[in-house]
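Predict fold of Polyketide synthase methyltransferase domain-containing protein; 291 aa.
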Amino acid sequence: MPPPDPADAVRDHYDRISVFYRTFWGDHIHHGYWEEGEDVPARTAQERLVALLAERAGVPEGARVLDVGCGVGGSARWLAAHLECRVDGITLSPVQVDMATSGAQAEGVGDRVRFQVHDARDLDALGTDYDVVWTVECTEHLEDKATFVEAAARRLRPGGALALCAWLRGDGGVADGTAEGAASGGGLDAEGEALVASVCEGMLCPSLATAAEYEGWMRAAGFGDLRTWDLTPRVARTWDLCAAIARRPEVRAILAVSDGRARRFVGAFPAMQRAYADGAMRYGMLVGHLS
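Predicted 3D structure, encoded as tokens:
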């Protein structure tokens, strides 16, 4: 009997608890971005992260975008509404496709976005060329990240951009965005490794990579003009807000009758907070253009 496909667990996870995720994250199932000292709502901060990635990737108006790991369609709807992009969003979860499609219709951008169930490991089967491959907090679920980057390059038109946000291992170093490339760093200690392992277990991540590894894969796939930014101090508040939500009585009541996946997800919040605080994990934004 062949071993179970990890994608099946990811699909089941999101089918079962996407509504629960929405309680924590809203329409954008990803981190928010806060400037130092400011206090804006999570949705505003999440949309700012989308806007920042679009700006740094140079997403042009009317671009054809492939959103890999589209979740419930928050990024796709923003790109369609603000830049008139035509967006194809893919996810493993039929539940997310339904939620994303309904949201796009409600916001009046249903004519510019399309969502479908499709495996991120098989981009070649899509048969469409794009100006931008966009992926925010999806590659964490992929074991073979290098192969994904290669496939993303094949889906891009010449000069196209890979725009990526990812949870990173902290031992690879991350540049500050003012210079190309990520600094090298030493390995994690035992406590750091344990924190990363706890996050991966709770969040269904087979592995996390360093910024330097991502940059190496992107260069090997033909991307140039690489830029990497360490956004950790600007996004870490996301998990403080999630932890506060998890303490609400109504959420605790839901968790009490939920399956183990939801409880493991919430149980990983403290490890995520500590991993960011201790440097075991970083949050990176990476952009490259196909040479």
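The chain has one domain: 6-290.
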